[in-house]
Amino acid sequence: MKITDIKVIVASPGRNFVTVKVVTDEGLYGIGDATVNGREKAVVAYLQDHVAPCLIGRDPGRIEDIWQYLYKGAYWRRGPITMAAIAGIDMALWDIKAKAAIMPLYQLLGGRSRERVMVYKHVGGLDIAEVVDGVQALREQGLDAIRAQVSIPGLPPIYGTGPSTDQAAGGMVQALPTEEVWATHKYLPLVPKLFEALRDNVGWDVHLLHDVHHRLTPIEAARLGKDLEPFRLFWLEDAIPAELQDGFRIIRQHTTQPLAVGEIFNTVWDCQQLISEQLIDYIRVTSVHAGGVTGLKKIFDFASIYHVRSACHGPMDVSPVAMGCNIHVDVAIPNFGIQEYSGYTEATHDMFPCAWSYERGYLQPGEAPGHGVDIDEAVAEKYPYAPAYLPVARLEDGTLTSW
Fold first, then answer.
1. Where in this chain does the record put each Mandelate racemase/muconate lactonizing enzyme C-terminal domain (predicted)?
2. Were 17 and a residue from 142, 147, 319, 380 both cysteine, which residue would form a disulfide, CB within 3.0 to 4.6 Å?
3. Domain range spanning residue 97?
4. Domain boundary at 89, 104, 119, which?
């Protein structure tokens, strides 16, 4: 079997997605996700100009060799654009291999380690009462794990607490970056009040999560972790920017609050210190940003040695293709923790027919050969690319800060 064509399809059925289609001379093809939210066209150029020409005529079954070829062969290693391009190819190759074997992908990864995949969804609100109502509503829908976020009184709503991030719905993903306002000293006393209210109203038989979105310093995050300990959160997510991984040691020294990080990581080397020194409890890499199924497995296998569990990033800009690959890995690995799941627009589901399914807080990969996700190119043509960016954040005095 040889690779005869590689197509790159860009469409926006609610969010912009970059989809890779690898075609072979035996009629089999595979689909991959190569989306980098807000930098989609950079990945398209990388794939079309620098990756696809190098792979025509190669054996699609040599997945590890092709992964290494694309990673080491460029010399300029790592980074979100390179690793998303590798991911798109890698997912498509695993799709082809599993289709050729007439097996769902998880069977090639060792078979099931669990019967279903627990997810968490998000609730945001303008005040604590609104968040409590939202969490109670998701509990009634069967959710066992819920992330809760609340706006800071006196400031405009920030990402995760205000309008939808659905690009088609005119939410917070805009043609140019919006600028949000952040105030740490107003946020720190607010969050413990939120979770006190949630425990009082929702009880203790639900996993509660919270995302800081990289906005604190290590000692601020340590203080927040200590303040949240009485409410037994499932995790505190992205408490600080992770470029300086030593910062997590400061947090660890002061709180027993479980910590999660990694959605912007691209390789196992980005999280080596955090995992090997057991400075985190959950690693949140996702297939599209960490080099596909191959890259994801490298990270999760390494993490399993150090009691660190998986927690794949799963917002709306991780396409149903990457979500499908995540689910197949989730169901197979021994150290699965949880899967983020935001859901998709109806148009997105029309464009990406899926074998995987969601029901009352849990996902199943399905039994279709491959990873079980296809692309309807006729539907994709109805949703052309539209420039869109995530917000940026400034302090009240105008200083740019981490978003």
1. 128-258
2. 319
3. 3-104
4. 104
- CA angle at 191 for the pair 189 and 192, rounded to the nearest 5°: 75
Answer for the pair 274, 245: CB distance below 8 angstroms, yes or no: yes
Do residue 216 and residue 310 come from a single domain? yes
Q: What's the pLDDT at 165?
A: 52
Q: pLDDT digit string (tens) for 130-178?
A: 999 999 999 999 999 999 999 999 999 887 776 655 555 555 567 788 8
Catalytic site positions: 159, 213
Q: How far is CA 63 from the centre of its chain?
A: 23
Residues 125 and 27 in one domain: no
Q: Is residue 373 part of a domain?
A: no
pTM of the complete model: 0.96
Number of domains the chain contains: 2
In tens, the pLDDT along 253-280 reads 999 999 999 999 999 999 999 999 999 9
Q: Token pair of 212, please?
A: 């800081």
Q: How far apart are CA 174 and CA 254, in angstroms?
A: 39
